[in-house]
Design brief:
Residues 44-175 form the Nudix hydrolase domain. By secondary structure, this protein is α+β, with helices and mostly antiparallel strands. Helix content is 19%, strand content 35%. It has two domains: 10-43; 48-184, Nucleoside Triphosphate Pyrophosphohydrolase, CATH 3.90.79.10. The protein contains three helices and ten strands. A hairpin with a 5-residue loop joins strand 2 and strand 3.
Length: 189
Amino acid sequence: MIKKEIQPWTVLEEEDISPSPWFPLTKQQVRLRNNNVYDYYFSRLGDVVQVLAITKQNEVVLVRQYKHGLGQITLEIPGGLQQTNKTIIQSALNELEEETGIKATEHQLISLGKIAINPTKLKQETYGFIVFDAESTAEQKLDATEDIEVVLIPAPQVLQMALNGEIWVTDSLNFILKAAMLYPGVFGR
């Protein structure tokens, strides 16, 4: 098979057209390899962290909360946007503690890699981690817009819920399935 040379587009102009700080929006004028010029729109929402926490009892720590973009209550693994002036690792540890009351250390975080949910329209990478022997040792420290219920479910049941569509938010689903492949014993496989 002949490998095709793929090239990035050339950015000719760029403009921030964000309607609010909640939804950054960028307009670029770009030139493609074939010299065609287009206006292209995308959002730089910021990178995200998620932590799949497993308790000593082999339960997965999930968060149940309302997501206004969907207009629905979802069941996900804890996480959030990378925090200002914090590294990905620091943000992961902070989000885990803030949303669930679970304190962990950098040495407990095991990377599950990163994913991009919609690279056509979002400049955003989501970094996943797994923590074993998690236990709640602090109070939740929720943001003003958060109302979160912490839910503990046995890991094999969480995998089944992911497979049958009860857990369906993309990033949580991806990291649960990846963890089940990497740690099959945890998920009853």
